[in-house]
Amino acid sequence: MFIRLTTFAASASLLATGALAQDFNAVPPNAPDQQPAFENQTRAPVLAGDVALNQTVIADGLDHPWGLAELPDGSWLVTERAGNLRLVGADGTLSDPIGGLPELDTRDQGGLLDVTVANDFADTRRVWISFAQPREDGKTATAVATGTLSADNSTLEGTEVIWQQQPAWDSTKHYGSVLIHDGQSGLFVTTGERSVPDARVYSQNVTTTLGKVVRIDPETGAPMGDPGVAEALPEIWSWGHRNIQGAALDGQGRLWTIEHGPKGGDELNLPQAGRNYGWPRVTYGVEYSGDPVEEGVTQMEGTEQPVYYWDPVIAPGQMTFYDGEMFPDWQGDLLIGGLKSNDLVRLELDGDRVTGEARHLQGIGRVREVEVARDGALMLLTDEDNGRLIRVTPAQSES
What percent of the chain has pLDDT over 70? Predict the structure, then answer.
């Protein structure tokens, strides 16, 4: 157990490095010739970042933590990408690894990914996890399993794999994968397109689930998508995605996703059923080499534009819409973990459009996950060898 309180002023005037961090729109783009399709689609006006924040380290020593889910008693389930599911008590007590997990492939970007629990967890103790699953001939794919957490919190019981990405691929990258209960009896699962050039083209192939948002029955894994295309797999919701590692429902119950793009092409989307989001035919940004992605096209009939994109990238982790009492000025704002930007990214929205962007907690580390606790505090995970679970509150609030 390790609990430490620090105060962090996320302000250009109060942080030695803040002037540079809050001047993020001054950094030149990787694709300077590309133009947004509409106002504020990128480089929205910079919002004031002068909010002093308390940080309380609830637990540290985590091995590249990835997913986070709050339980009714105020404890948190945390996944470690290396293959462990742990329970962090409200007092910071870190459990031994929870048993009963399916077989994982933990190479490179693989391992144990997201975790979510049932709304009626207090009665059912139902848990879902996503993970990189070893398949035939050394191939891997994203998969989803469910089970019930034992009364003593030591074991995931009756664990069953209910969904598998198709096809498996000889790659250890771009698995996705976020799990979002949609409030309508379905479970959204986001996937990646496995990164390598011969696999990523399948983002455009609706007979596969590479580079897709899928929707399934959370109990059985049965398809509940709405692809609107006769030959498409019935679990598909949307396609043409690169590597979606963040997703959340807004106040209207709509799904938003955020994905890692190429160099200069991270995207925020509001994916609609049966729509194509372009990758790799249409994208902002360039290859890591600096070459165009395919034909270098940023707009194409039959594909959807992102709500927002970043050039340079932030390398987004998980995200959430703020709905709580501690940060009243942030109500309805979108909070995003920045892996490369090493901060908490906040977007102000007006309807479906971004009107401003701020960066908070600059230098805190690779923020993989951000969730809103029941009391309105923010809970962050840092994706590091010595990963931390951090509680963030306004400086004037008790932590």
Answer: 93
